[in-house]
Amino acid sequence: MTDGRTTGSARAFELLEPLVQAATVRVHAPPGGYENPRSHRTGPTWGSGFFIAPGWVLTCAHVVGEGGAAVRLTGREVGITFSAGSITGTVTGRVECVLPERLEERRPARHALWDLPDLALVRVLAPVSHACVWLTDRSRPRFDEVAYFGCTEDLGTPEITGRTTRLRGTAGNGAAIRLGDDDEIEPGMSGGPVVDLARGEVVGVLKARRQTGGGGLAVSVVQLRTLPMAARGQVGLYRRIMQAHDLYHFDQHLSDLDNRRTWTDAHGELPPEEGDPYAGRGRLTPGERTTLYGLLAELPPPGSSEVVRALVEEARGEEPDPLPPAPLSWRDGLGLLHDPPGGTGEAAAMLRYATDVSVAEYREPVTPGADEELWDWVRATAERLWRPLRRELGERHERGLAERERRRRASAGRTAYGPARRSGGLPPGASVLLEVWAHGWEDVYDWRVSVLAGPAHAGRVTPVDSGVRATLAGLPEALRAPLAEGFRRCDTHEAAALLEVAVAPALFGLAVDEWVVVGGVPLGVQRPVVLRHPAGASPAAVNPGGIGPAAASPAAASPAAASPVAVNPGGVGPGGAREHPADREGTDASARWARVQAGPLQDERADCIRGRPRSPATEWLTGLPDNTVPVHCRAADQEPTLGSLHAVRDAGYGVVVTRRPPPDPGASCAPFHRGLREELADAGRAEVLPVRLQNLRGRAYGADPDAYWAAGTGLVWEDPARPLPEEEPLQGDL
Questions:
Q1: Pairing mode, if any, of strands 608-609 and 713-717?
Q2: What is the DSSP string of 305-341?
Q3: Nearest by Cα to 576 from 565, 562, 560, 587
Q4: Cis peptide leading into 640, omega within 30 of 0?
Q5: Do residues 476 and 523 touch, judged by C-beta distance below 8 A?
Q6: What's this model's pTM, rounded to 2 decimal places?
Q7: Smallest Cα–Cα separation from 22: which of 186, 195, 254?
Q8: Chain centre distance of CA 718
Q9: At what angle do helices 346-358 and 370-381 cross, to 10 degrees?
Q10: How many alpha carbons lie under 13 Å from residue 124 in its C-beta half-sphere?
Q11: Beta-carbon neighbour count of residue 663 at 10 Å?
Q12: What totals of helices (H) and strands (E) does the chain contain, helices first?
């Protein structure tokens, strides 16, 4: 131990060291076919790692990337040397996944820091018996004393050793943890575990040491939640691994086959924290906590992150921490219930949460009796707590059962509130909102990513991230991580969440549907993507004379096109006062929306006549039938299309089609209009258009020649059930 450590942390290190060492491994080149697994002749050490679940090793991506940029990471075989009691064994592992995904294409220079989170998951290719660490469930670490472990060769032989220091802060928006300089971090320790000594849980993965002096960086293990999401109907890698992790410790806790100390035993012997307001009955005991995690792991995972957050809010009494990464498993929800507000105990909050989980809707059929076993455990555990809480939990369980039965009837189309949602439409839950604003008159843009709660909680917005002064070319990279986090929060096992892009009409040509965020597939192929007008601004204020390059275009500079008002001055003739469509008699945007949703659909070319550009007259637009879908085939940032987009909005149209023109300016727009007319006729109603357009993009991405006409197609979707936030972000320092 390092000098100056407290008696409590010294005792914690003594208890935890053998458990951590048993699960920590040395990573090196894969072993030869006839090498003695007991020998150390396995080549030089690349780094360290540790078992987080049976058969799964967590390490750093740069550790398995030994060999340079020419080495492919995913699928690479590596050697894993570990200890099982007094025996040292070596097995082969295969790299299943690295974070971030783009490390496969973009590696840092030699001796440079790899991009965060710099993690790799290795699957052992042979059945072996080994120990696993206990991973934290907290979204952010506590800045206390920690121990870190890894492979060193102090005496000429590779061995796992441990040292201590203190956490000093975070970096990379919480993805990394700063380590103090109390002791030295040696190169072979990269990829080893960082253990919170006060709570006996692994909080980080050693990543780097400082070039000058001691200290370094570790990656928060919570970044495992950023593993790529699974395809629809599948359980993702993160949820599968955490389920295996919790069941491993649950089984260890229940087993009486040997008397070796388990992590649960060590947790029970850790020195109590000074000044803990929830000590005693206020917290679950280590054994109760391990049992609860195991019972939750036996249930099917939640349908979405928002399901977990909603149950946490109910149990905690306030909205949980909105900072990323999003909770993806029932276990992650427990991590948001530590230190609840108002003096209520952790144990009470966790039992409320467990009660709600026992009556939740699961993404797949539950193992018979698993939900009832969880409720029986809650009821038995509450016996040692307060009598009013036991009564509250019982009533909560009864209400939950009744609500679950109502949901089941509703999903079968027998709800008392009307028929079930028609097939082919958008998912009714939360959506991801991307807002982009021009930064003054400069050619840079501010942005914000949020989660819209959906029609059930109309207007409720949860921020994810924001930024300022990004170029159009730099937006895809700046928004990669925030959008991925938003999708993790909103995607369900049934459907990918809707992405709503709220921008000025001059930016309707922004190719967001072609951006690649995760999985190597464009966004418009992965999920429905729609365009929105920004909230809280009239069309004139949204784009006063053009934005950025569009303002300098010849069309925008002409007297007739200098302002959208000149093209469509509020529907009252040239020079008249601009009005909002809701204030104008004879125009009912809500009725037009409802009519076009039901169909049938009628398309009308808004900005061209047989390929020649035109500006639509206000009287003509307002006189079209309510089931009309205005169609634009020309560049959105130039006239007459820019003015037409404002005009159709003024006329109350909530469903509008746009297109990014092909590179060849001489290409005819006739195939686009012909293909779109057939698509609208086949769709029959507007409510299915976002998903049908996603399918069209998928066909075009798959090289279907019958879908080529749809390239660059966008859908303006002003759903009144999804109101946008009114305020704009700060413009940043001047």
A1: unpaired
A2: HHHHHHHHHHHHSSPPP-PSSPP-SHHHHHHT-SS-G
A3: 565
A4: yes
A5: no
A6: 0.82
A7: 195
A8: 25
A9: 150
A10: 23
A11: 6
A12: 21, 23
Measured CA distances, 586 to 234, 571, 621, 630, 719 (Å): 49, 11, 12, 18, 20
Buried b (16+ CB within 10 A) or exposed e, 302-319: bbbbbbbbbbbeebbeee
**CA neighbor of 38 nearest in space, from 84, 103, 96:** 84
CB of 601 closer than 8 Å to CB of 684: yes
d(CA 107, CA 509): 32
Question: Got the DSSP string for 207-222?
Answer: EEE-SSSS-EEEEEGG
Planar angle of CA 340, 306, 298, nearest 5 degrees:
80
Q: What is the β-pairing status of strands 499-502 and 461-470?
A: unpaired
Q: Between vectors from CA 119 to CA 326 and to CA 253, what angle results, nearest 5°?
A: 70
- Dist. CA 230–CA 232, nearest whole Å: 6
Nearest-CA neighbor of 639 among 543, 567, 714, 700? 567
Q: Pairing between strand 445-452 and 713-717?
A: unpaired
The beta strands (E) that lie in 439-496 are given as: 445-452, 461-470
Token couple for 242: 């955490």
In this structure, how many other beta carbons lie within 10 angstroms of the beta carbon of residue 277? Answer: 11
CA distances from 136 to 97, 200, 297, 561, 728 (A): 21, 9, 15, 59, 37
- Structure-token match 């006739």, residue found: 670
What are the structure tokens assigned to 23, written together? 């699960």
What mean pLDDT do residues 425-438 have? 91
- Report the alpha-carbon distance of residue 120 to residue 114 in Å, rounded: 12
At 186, the amino acid letter reads: E
Residue 465: which of 449, 481, 451, 484 has the closest Cα?
A: 449
Query: Which residue blocks in 450-529 are alpha helix, DSSP H?
Result: 475-478, 480-490, 523-526
Burial class of residue 3 (count of CB atoms within 10 Å of its CB; 0-12, 13-18, 19+) = exposed
Per-range mean pLDDT, top range of 287-291, 299-303, 456-460, 537-541: 287-291
The pLDDT tens digits for 487-523 are 999 998 888 999 999 999 999 999 999 999 988 899 9
Q: Is 287 left (phi over 0), alpha (psi -120 to 50) or beta?
A: alpha
Q: 282 near 345, Cβ under 8 Å?
A: yes
Angle CA 218–224–228, to nearest 5 = 135
* Helix (H/G/I), strand (E/B), else coil: 487: helix
Pairing of strands 628-631, 602-605: parallel
Cα distances (angstroms) measured from residue 594 to each of 461, 482, 686: 24, 33, 9
Helix (H, G, I), strand (E, B) or coil at 478: helix
C-beta separation of 49 from 27 below 8 A: yes
Tokens of 241: 């691994």
- Residue 155's pLDDT band, with cuts at 50, 70 and 90, is confident
DSSP-derived secondary structure for 593-647:
HHHHHHS--EEEESSEETTEE----HHHHHHS-TTEEEE--S-TTSTTHHHHHHH
Burial class of 67 by CB neighbour count within 10 A (0 to 12, 13 to 18, 19+): exposed
Single out the residue of 712, 730, 728, 223 nearest to residue 512, CA to CA: 712
CA geometry: angle at 622 spanning 676 and 615, to 5°? 65
Q: Which tokens go with 308?
A: 């977990």
Residue 413 makes CB contacts below 8 A (sequence gap 6+) with: 419, 420
Query: 10 Å Cβ neighbour count for 259?
Result: 7
Per-residue pLDDT tens over the stretch 342-371: 666 889 999 999 999 999 988 778 888 999
C-beta separation of 438 from 547 below 8 A:
yes
Other Cβ atoms less than 10 A from the Cβ of 344: the count is 17
